[in-house]
Amino acid sequence: MKIAVSGKGGVGKTTLSAMFAAALSLKGRSVMALDADPDANLPAALGVPPDAQPTPLSEMRDLIAERTGATDNYGGYFKLNPKVDDIPEQYATRIGNIRLLVLGGVKKGGAGCICPASALVKALLTHLVIGRDDAVIMDMEAGIEHLGRATAQSTDALVLVVDASPWSVQTALRIRALAGDLGMNRLLAVANRVRESTDVDRIRRELNGIALVGQIPYDERFEAGVARLTEQGELAPAPALREHLQVVEAVLSEVQDTL
Ligand SMILES: Nc1ncnc2c1ncn2[C@@H]1O[C@H](COP(=O)(O)OP(=O)(O)OP(=O)(O)O)[C@@H](O)[C@H]1O
Ligand SMILES: [Mg+2]
Known about the structure:
Elements: E1 2-7, H1 13-26, E2 31-36, H2 42-45, H3 61-68, H4 87-91, E3 93-95, E4 98-102, H5 116-127, E5 135-140, H6 149-154, E6 157-162, H7 166-181, E7 187-194, H8 197-206, E8 211-217, E9 227-229, E10 235-237, H9 239-257
The structure holds adenosine-5'-triphosphate (ATP) and magnesium ion.
Residues 13-14, 37, 41, 139 line the site of magnesium ion.
């Protein structure tokens, strides 16, 4: 299962990505969690302390230079297809059964511009090979502009997070249009921060055919994150996740059933 999580700003993409990764890890499944938001906060949501935040891949200059052959001399040649297969093992932060990689921001130049850092990230997304029972969960930046072909081609489905605000559904509908252009047609939605079941009925209607596969209730304790990293490197669920774990597992299995 390889899924990317997208949606409007602040709807809960990072929280839902962390819930999915944590729930799978607690079941003993291997998870590759990718933070693809330049303003990375998936590590924090999974309980990585501030002083142990992983370095974003796009800022590992030596690694980028070694793998792509790029020098600081921009405009020079570099490999578009660098070796990446050992990167998860070598550079990921371990949290229980989760291997977490922060991809970092990649500066975009003019249209069609590609820089060595983005070549490395793209190669990683494209070549990530996982075992049958493993999962890849990618937390994305808000909006749709960054939804590139590499993301679309490397994932099985796009999970669109929506909430009771009308704008989040509008964003989901715009993402559907863009994802379709990129050849990614497997889209599903999850309602987050749900307080009223009537909201869910309305959201389902407004989603205009995008399948709403589940809902996560509002719980203010999610503000404190989803999990905690123990001294032994294990993942301990936060109280909010412990309380809603069955709901999260049910949503996950609905997602898996549509793949
Ligand atoms: N089910 C929930 N119940 C209550 N609060 C929640 C829930 N899910 C997320 N939140 C809170 O809503 C806020 C936004 O969540 P989150 O950061 O996950 O959204 P996001 O979509 O990743 O935002 P961004 O677009 O900035 O990346 C956070 O403070 C988070 O703790
Ligand atoms: Mg986020």
